[in-house]
Amino acid sequence: MTLAVRPYSEGDEFAINDAFNRIFGCSRSIEEWVWKFSIDGAREATVAAWDGEKLAAHNGGIPAAFIVGGRRVLSLQGVDTFSLAALDKRRDWKGAWLDVMDFFAEVIAPQAQAPLLYGFTGPNSIGHMVNRCRWDAAEPRRIPLLTRTVGTGGKKSLASRLYIARPFGDHEPALDLLWHRVQPRYSAAVVRDADGLRRRFAGHPLAPYHRWLVTPRFSQDPVASVVFRTDGGQCRWADLLWDNKHPGALDLVHHLSGRLAQQTGCGQEAMWLDGDPEAEERLRGAGFEGGPDPSGVVRVTRFLDPTLSAEAFAPGRVYTTMADADLV
Description:
By secondary structure, the protein is of the alpha+beta class. 27% of the residues lie in helices and 30% in strands. It has helices at residues 12-24, 30-36, 96-112, 126-132, 174-182, 194-201, 247-263, 277-285; strands at residues 4-7, 47-51, 54-68, 71-83, 116-121, 141-142, 144-149, 163-167, 188-190, 209-216, 224-231, 234-242, 268-272, 289-292, 298-303.
């Protein structure tokens, strides 16, 4: 028996989404799948192995611009990666997942001109991703998870009163200026300009995203942006950009988080934050605490261009928030 390994074809999404829900115990709607893979190039970067009309293995690809050591490149994030061999008791499908991952790296990525692959994987799959798929360009990294019990953030600081926050929508040009200001602080990061944040957060069929832009009270210059998601009893910081010349702006952001959490009935605030030790220190001083994400999820990385800087991906240097994962 020979499995057919091929890119996404129209109509595949129904079998893919059904299998995703079976594997991960989810109830994701087909509308959520459509939203997730509506980013330009995402469906073309999605690969699956088929046994006739039966799905055997799958890996999705989400394109995003990435800064690596000051160089801008295209990345592909591996998402919704799974094999049905064990669940469907098909020993003859055991090699399908590796075939899919090889096709993704050796065919899809070169076609997309994407020299950087990355993704987040659970503890049971780290060895497979690193040793078998060669996603070993950087040490697997567990991202710090910071949490705070709602109501423990204290009073609004005097410094925060020098800033104001306003909601922003899908097309916010001030985000380009903010990204231009803060990008030099990061050795590596997904590009978070206006287009990048629009692609990531616009149009979700279910998620209640709350997007805020912070400026000084007597200026229109952006100094911070934040995206919150409130559901499941948590107010999660989906993304954060902060100009560290304005500590009061970050104070206002975490004050907003606490207020929003209370207003939406959340009991906890939570975020991933890596690659910005100054922001982490200030937030810990405001009551956030934690360490490496206890779920054991890690980021794994593969370079298809040997000139990419491995040093830029040293532990703690890649700017990472929950926006970099695909499930928040």
